[in-house]
Amino acid sequence: MESKLGIFAYILSLVLISVVSIVAFLRLENSPLLQLYVVIAAVVAYNGWGLIYHLYRKRLTLSLVLEYLLVGALVILLFFWTLFS
Fold this sequence. Notes:
The protein is mainly α and 85 residues long. The protein has helices at residues 4-27, 32-56, 62-83. It starts with a helix and ends with a helix.
């Protein structure tokens, strides 16, 4: 069983990734290219977080890795089309 401190650390790191990404995205409202970079960095950080989390919990599978990569790619494409259309 996982300790409460370990669970708290994973949740806190995910919240920090989200908050920092949202703040950076909103602060760069006049620069769509920099906003896209923030989205890419957020997706990479989220994918890293998810893969480490599932690896630690011993539930990491190839299908889960592909799911994280495909959802991340979809998010990047959606923001790209929204910011540059």
